[in-house]
Every structure is written in C-alpha cells, then in structure tokens.
Amino acid sequence: MTDSKKMYINGEWIEAESGETQEVINPATGESVGSVSFGDSRDAAKAIAAADAAFKSWAQATARERSKYLNNLYELVRTHRDELAGIICAEMGKPLREAKGEVLGAADNFMWYAEEAKRVYGETVPSTIPNKRIMVTKHPVGVVAAITPWNFPVNMVARKIAPALAAGCTVVLKPAEGTPLSAIRLFELIEQAGFPKGVVNLVIGNPESIGKEFTDNKKVRKIAFTGSTRVGKLLMEGAAKTVKRVSLELGGHAPFIVFDDADLDAAVTGLFESKFFNSGQMCICTNRLYVHESVVEEFTNKLVERLTKAKVGDGRNMDTEIGPLVNENGLNKVLDHIDDARERGGNIVYGGNRLTDGEYSKGFYCEPTVITDVTPDMKIYTEETFGPVVPILTFKEEAEVVELANDTDYGLAAYVYTQNNSRCFRMSEALEYGIVGINDGSPTQTQAPFGGFKESGIGREGGRYALEEFLEIKFVSFGL
Ligand code: ADP
Description:
CATH class of the largest domain: Alpha Beta
Bound molecules: adenosine-5'-diphosphate
Number of helices: 15
Largest sheet: 7 strands, mixed
Helix content: 25-40%
CATH topology of the largest domain: Aldehyde Dehydrogenase, Chain A, domain 1
C-alpha cells in the first residue's frame, strides 16, 4: 500500500477510502509498472465537494489570472515531455515516438486555452422595445466531472480540463483504470503549476461507483466523457436526473474512400496514419476501406508493400511503428474480428495472426492485417475493431459509396482520397460525419472542432467550440 500512488483531492495526495489498490500492467511485457489507490463513490463525493468549494473564487478570477496557471502547466508539460511519454508507453504500449507527440498535443491545449480564456466575449443585441436593452454574458457552468479513456491518456485529459479551467469551471477527473499513472504525473505538474486547491481533482477507481456519483451528485453541472457509446448512453441517462449538461465523444466506424482518380501513394500514407497510428486504437480510425474497383489491386499491393516495412514491437524502441494492443481483451476482440471475417469468406491477404515468438512472447501483439472480399455480415463491417486490421471493399459509383459510407449509426470521422476538386466538395458535403479528412489521414488539430454526428456523440472538443461547452449564456434585460 505504501508504494501505491494516490489520488489528488483538494490539493492533497490521499489514499482511497476503501484502502484498495490496483496494479498497472505493461502490455508489451505483461509486467506490473506500478500500483495505484483504487477509489469509489466516497472519494468522488469528496472531490466534488472540494471542486464545489473552489468554484466561486475560480470563476471570479480574471481570465488573465486563470491563464497564468494554464501557461505554467503548458511549460511544465513540455519540459516533462519525455518522462510523460515514457509513462504512457509503459502503461498502454503506445510507441514512444507517438507518445511524445501526444504529450506535445496536450501541452498545446494548455497553451491554446490559456489564450482563449481571454476571449469569452458577450454581446449586446438590438431591442425591439425602445426602453429596454439586451445584454448577453457568458458564465462557467460549474463543477465538471470528466471521464477519459486509455488510448490517449494524457491528451484526452488535457482536451477536457484545459477548456473547462479556462472557462472558469472546476474539475474532477477520472482517468481510465488501465492508465492512471500518466494522469497522476500530470496532476503532480498541475500541483506544481500552482492551481488553487480544489480547482482540479483526480479520482481513480471503480468506474460504475464513481460514475454514479458523478451523475447523481447535484453539485456536478456537467459531464465531459470520451469512451464507448455504451457508457456514453449510460452517463447521458444518469445526467438526465439533474439535467446536467453532457459532452460525449463516443465510438466511430470510419469509412476511408479511395477514388480511381486518387494519388494512390498519398492514399496509402493517409491510410497508414488513420489505421495504424496507436495500433488502430482510436475512435477516428478507419474501420471500412472502400476502394474503386479499377484501382483496388494496385492499391492493395501498395498497402501490403508498406506493411512489410512496418516495424511491430515494444514501443520503447524508437523505430517501432506499431505497438501491442492495450490488453488481452483488446487483442482477443481484434483476433475475433479476423476469425469471423475468415469464416465468412474474407481473404486474408496480409497478416491475420497473433505474434507470439521471441520479443512478442509476453505482449499482446497482432500482425498488421489486410482482408479483402469483405461483406456486410462480418463483425468487422459494423463493429469497432480497435486494432491494426484493414478490411477492403470495392465500389463503382460515387453515389453508391456515399450511401454505403453513411449507412451506420456512427458519424465521427470519414476520409476521402481524390484529386477531383468538385468531388472533394461534393463528398465533404454528402458525408454525415463530424470530421472529414479530404486527402488527409490525420485530421486533428487543437483549434479545430472534434466530435461526431449521430451516436458518435454530442458536443465538440477543440478550439473555441470546446470553450462554449463549458459556458452558460445569461440574458440580462435592462429596463431604462
Ligand atoms: P473503452 O472500451 O474505450 O475502455 P469505456 O467506455 O469502457 O471505453 O471506458 C472509457 C472510460 O469510461 C474509462 O475511464 C472507464 O473507466 C469509464 N467507464 C466505464 N464504465 C463506466 C460507467 N459505468 N460509468 C462511468 N464511467 C465508466
């Protein structure tokens, strides 16, 4: 117990009420990399009370003052980039070179919202009644409960807490069970940045118990969540009891469309980014590839050639491009999707198996895999695979592929490769997705809105759009 890392509540590092702890496992080696306090609703209630007590003065602080703390944090996160990246790599297997990029992305959020905090403008609106004046002002929503997933364990935290704090909200964060160590290190930097006590709190532990406290506690005014659609729906249902606001960034099933007029080399590069980054464990990952029938053979050959050069391995090696899956369950799901496709007539043209020899023997590794002859009855066609598997389908007509691409309950990201300008516009307008990459396999930036249509979510992260998610609008009517 003494070696276990603690939670950060009201400016202090404390153990879970229950006294329980949890081990964190490195998916590249199967070995423990540390242990943490494992809390429940009691710890969450304490953290919410602290955030509530801190809210008034934080909300009343000038934007410039809030900015100062966010800027401190930006500097600290940048300075500790390699250390944070090392923790991410150890607790969830992300290749170091990607993890370093993730940490810089997180730092960028703190810097960007430090600036944007100063631009929460109100408005005056012309009145139709001569002796009245309309003033519109913006105010922080209150205490925010944030829940983050394991796939971007530092940046997902930054994307929620940076705009929330900039807006004047106080926060209680629950990171994913698998990745608490990077969150703890980030909170040590938050403490060092000098934020007043209670403004940012960290609880770690039982998701159901903590989640229920988040939804049921009246002091929480907003839930910000990234994770599965299943849990997002649960939280939305729970939030209804006290009409809390929600921002939900949920699952996806991204189509990636390659037209016959595409630059096929650029399309392969874009697909590699969108499919194999983070070992395919991203909600904006390509999950269905539609290639025009006249170029499918050439495209598939180029893709397979690229994959033969991809280095799979322990993320600590700087030449690793594809790391292990996050845990055994994650690996089993990917292998199940491959087996299901195989049984239903899919043709595995590359990979298709777990890697078990030598350096792979203890980790959760899957070969990068390409499957052709994919049909809609396969799991891989409708479920999120979250792994390094590319299912390839073909199409003939633009209208046909638009219909196929939109035929899903999800609507997060979609990708299109074509060199025809008119088609670029037509496709960007026709796709029912919150994010469309046109000749771009990696469409995310701090200042751009990130979020989905349909069951992929509600609200947006990123840019000024995220700040609005943490602000209430007040209308003041002046009688003269
Ligand atoms: P994934 O499949 O990516 O792990 P989850 O939705 O299960 O997605 O997890 C995302 C986050 O949601 C994690 O922090 C997890 O602990 C949390 N979570 C899981 N179940 C619940 C729940 N019932 N209530 C609140 N949070 C939950």
